[in-house]
Design goal:
Blueprint lengths: L3 E4 L2 E4 L4 E7 L8 E7 L6 E7 L5 E3 L7 E6 L4 E6 L8 E10 L5 E5 L3 E6 L1
Parallel strand pairs: 2-11
Antiparallel strand pairs: 1-3, 3-8, 4-5, 4-9, 5-6, 7-8, 9-10, 9-11
Length: 121
C-alpha cells in the first residue's frame, strides 16, 4: 500500500555531509512514524532516527545525535535525513521505514529499497 523510495546516497569523505530523501506514497501520513535504519556489512540493522509525522517530534540513536537531523515535508510527503560530520562508521545501507496504523490498533511496517552511504577515511 505504501511505497518508499530513497535517494541521496553516495561517497563522501570523513567530515562531509549528505542528505538522504525518502519519497512516500499516500494521501495522509498523520498517524505515521517515519524513520531511518542502517545496516553495515556483517552487522544487524540498527535504528538511526525517527519522526512522528503529525507533530514533527523526533528521536535519534545516540551514535548520531548532534550530527544527523530528520525532517519531513508535508506537501511532498517526503522525509529527509541530513547527515553532517560523517564518520567511516556511518558507512552502511540506509533504509527508509514507515510505521503505519493498521486495523484494530495494530501497526504495519513498510521499507524502502535502501541507499548506500560510504564514508572514506
Amino acid at each position: 500500500q505504501v511505497q518508499l523510495v530513497e535517494s541521496g546516497g553516495g561517497l563522501v569523505q570523513t567530515g562531509g555531509s549528505l542528505r538522504l530523501s525518502c519519497a512516500a506514497s499516500g494521501r495522509t501520513f498523520s498517524g505515521y512514524v517515519m524513520g531511518w535504519f542502517r545496516q553495515a556489512p556483517g552487522k544487524e540493522r540498527e535504528f538511526v532516527a525517527a519522526i512522528r509525522w503529525s507533530t514533527g517530534s523526533t528521536d535519534y540513536a545516540d551514535s548520531v545525535k548532534g550530527r544527523f537531523t530528520i525532517s519531513r515535508d508535508n506537501a511532498k510527503t517526503t522525509v529527509y535525513l541530513q547527515m553532517n560530520s560523517l564518520k567511516p562508521e556511518d558507512t552502511a545501507v540506509y533504509f527508509c521505514n514507515a510505521d503505519a496504523p493498521g486495523r484494530y490498533g495494530t501497526r504495519r511496517n513498510y521499507w524502502g529499497q535502501g541507499t548506500q552511504v560510504t564514508v572514506s577515511s
